[in-house]
Specification:
By secondary structure, the chain is α/β, with parallel strands linked by helices. Helix content is 58%, strand content 10%. The chain is built from 23 helices and 12 strands. Strands 1, 2, 3, 4 and 5 form a 5-stranded mixed beta sheet that branches. Strands 8-7-6-9-10 form a 5-stranded mixed beta sheet, sandwiched between helices. Helix 10 runs parallel beside helix 19 (524-538), helix 15 (456-469) packs antiparallel against helix 21 and helix 18 (504-515) packs across helix 23.
Length: 628
């Protein structure tokens, strides 16, 4: 069967390519010359689109670029060897020398997947890679590829039964290579194993309920969502699909030591970790965002409800009578809002450095969001939390990966790494990052004060842009506090512009999720968060847009800034004023703004602009990922 996909003419023992792009093109030309493609350029685009999902470079100099494409006439595998090596951005940082480009038609049958499984089993054989690399002729190389699989040396004692689950976003190369690696490692360690593959042809070899009950541990090595509820009550480890390819024995050892899995408490984390259709960096952000969303939604809706039903407009802002039921609701919501930024930082750090990074991540997020630590009137908000989470995560991961004496090693994840991580991030924010932030806030305030007597259109652009930039962060806070200060001077038009700009980001994200739902631009978690964001926008809580900005800052932040600018400029142009220190439609409806109808129109216009710009930027970025 393998001869249907690989032949001597699909092997090149000396690639001329010197870059990753040239490798793709040279291998594609070989496929095309053998009549395997009907549209080489489209196939290349599909290969690049797959590469954007995740790098296909492995350790030991192997790379397996692949794609399912309508441009393929029949399935094929082209093999190429680079004698000098190519910088492929492989995980181990080494040059890639052995390339298998797998071409799979969209409507192909299952046989090419079976061939891929055979190929995967060959790649993990001891000495196979060196032998193939040293082949002198195409015929010799093909003989190696077609040779019978070597038997794996096993121990005489069966230590237990394991279940593996493998899957990558496209379900081609990584899925089956990971499965083979688990099977080989388990046999060598004395365990029997059954591996479920979540490939392009669907789920194969799924374990039965009885087998799951029998299993000593479950090894879920997937970059796509799988049914986790069935593993409730078992030892479960969750990794990316490349983990067993790189070190299957380590994955098995970690699985045997893993805690008991409880489906309900792990569901949110599972969904976040399995959406690896982008880079590791994206998944780290998503881990933080997915844990932050419940805090944003809970806190935001409780604050929104208390303000809407119990709030009264006063010069000091929307006030709720002390001791009232709605005041208690507000206080609980404030607790959730206070925790959401440390949660974001903590779980970003956790995604990178595991449990040892969780505590210093929380601490770093708290310090980042509390300007009193470094002499600023406001913290760094979600942007600071992301920075803190990333820095802590990588720092702690570096610490725990060092070699320690066996007497010290047990203390590293529970004491040494958390303490060092906390000291590191606290020192960094208090003595290095903090001072520039405080200086920046003072400069921004001075700039606004100087501009307050100038052109209102320019001021609207600056004030609105600051309002939409970081949604409750330091830049937003400077603009807000400046506008509040101007109320005391009898100049309420600044707060009028600010009040119109404040709800634009959350309302815009709500509209964007509604308008972009059919365009496949937003994930289900974002669509659900969009509903809560809309409710928060109605009562002037700009933090409702933070999950969107944290997940995709390059699309969301510019959209928020532009939309908020539009709302603020319109508000200044219409002469809208606001006498209370708050914003959003609720302020206009409660009579604190002099022209409530026009104020609402300004907010709507800004939100619509934000939604349109956000969708446009997402589509542009999506298109670039496909054509890159």
């Amino acid at each position: 069967m393998i001869t249907q996909l690989i032949n001597e003419k699909l092997i090149c023992l000396d690639l001329k390519a010197t870059t990753k792009d040239e490798v793709f093109r040279e291998l594609t030309e070989i496929l095309n010359s053998q009549g395997k493609l009907k549209d080489p350029e489209q196939f290349l685009k599909d290969v690049y689109a797959r590469e954007q999902i995740g790098n296909t470079g492995f350790e030991n100099g192997i790379a397996m670029p692949h794609a399912k494409s309508s441009a393929i006439t029949e399935p094929a595998v082209v093999v190429g060897i680079s004698r000098r090596g190519i910088d492929y951005d492989a995980e181990d940082g080494e040059l890639s020398k052995l390339f298998f480009m797998i071409a799979s038609p969209d409507d192909s049958s299952d046989h090419h997947i079976q061939v891929l499984a055979e190929l995967s089993s060959k790649l993990i054989e001891d000495g196979f890679i060196d032998a193939l690399f040293n082949a002198k002729t195409n015929s010799e190389a093909l003989t190696l590829l077609l040779a019978e699989k070597k038997s794996v040396t096993t121990t005489s004692v069966n230590k237990g039964f394991l279940i593996g689950v493998t899957g990558c976003p496209t379900g081609i190369a990584h899925t089956y290579l990971a499965a083979e690696s688990l099977e080989k490692a388990a046999a060598e360690m004395g365990y029997s194993i059954k591996v479920e593959t979540n490939g392009s042809i669907g789920v194969r070899n799924a374990p039965t309920k009885e087998e799951i009950e029998q299993a000593t541990a479950i090894l879920v090595c997937c970059d796509k969502q799988v049914d986790m509820a069935r593993f409730n009550g078992k030892k479960v480890i969750q990794t990316g699909v490349k983990a067993p390819i790189n070190n299957a024995k380590q994955v098995i050892e970690q699985g045997l030591q893993a805690p008991i899995f409880t489906a309900d408490s792990k569901e949110t984390r599972q969904q976040a970790n399995q959406k690896s259709n982008r880079s590791n960096f994206y998944r780290y952000l998503m881990n933080g965002v997915s844990h932050m969303i419940p805090f944003v939604v809970t806190g935001g809706l409780m604050i929104a409800l208390s303000l809407a039903l119990g709030g009264e407009p006063t010069p000091q802002g929307m006030q709720i009578p002390e001791g009232s039921l709605w005041n208690h609701v507000l206080n609980v919501g404030v607790v959730a809002f206070t925790l959401m930024i440390p949660i974001l930082a903590g779980y970003i750090a956790y995604a990178i450095g595991d449990r040892a990074a969780l505590a210093p991540g929380f601490i770093g997020g708290w310090i980042a969001n509390n300007g009193s630590f470094y002499g600023a009137s406001a913290g760094t908000g979600f942007i600071g939390a992301i920075i803190a989470g990333l820095l802590v995560g990588y720092f702690v991961r570096f610490i725990v990966q060092q070699n320690y004496h066996k007497m010290v090693a047990p203390l590293v994840p529970i004491m040494i790494a958390p303490i060092l991580g906390s000291v590191f991030i606290a020192t960094l924010f208090i003595f290095v990052i903090g001072a520039p932030i405080a200086d920046l806030m003072q400069w921004l305030n001075a700039m606004l004060t100087e501009m307050s007597t100038g052109n209102v259109i320019l001021l609207g652009i600056v004030l609105g842009g600051m309002a939409g930039f970081d949604m409750g962060g330091p830049v937003n806070k400077v603009a807000f506090l400046f506008s509040v200060g101007m109320i005391a001077n009898g100049q309420t038009q600044f707060m009028g512009a600010m009040a119109a700009a404040i709800p634009v980001a959350p309302l815009g994200m709500f509209l964007a999720t509604v308008m972009g739902r059919k365009l496949n631009l937003f994930e289900e978690s974002e669509i659900e968060a969009g509903k809560a964001s809309g409710a928060m926008g109605l009562v002037g809580i700009s933090e409702g847009a933070i999950p969107f900005a944290a997940q995709d800052p390059l699309s969301v932040i510019p959209a928020n800034v532009i939309g908020s600018m539009v709302a603020a400029v319109l508000a200044f142009s219409f002469g809208i004023t606001n006498s209370v220190a708050h914003g959003g439609p609720i302020v206009a409806l409660l009579g604190a703004m002099n022209k409530p109808v026009l104020a609402l129109l300004c907010m709507i216009a800004g939100a619509v602009v934000t939604a349109i710009v956000c969708i446009a930027l997402k589509k542009v970025r999506q298109a670039k990922m496909v054509t890159a």
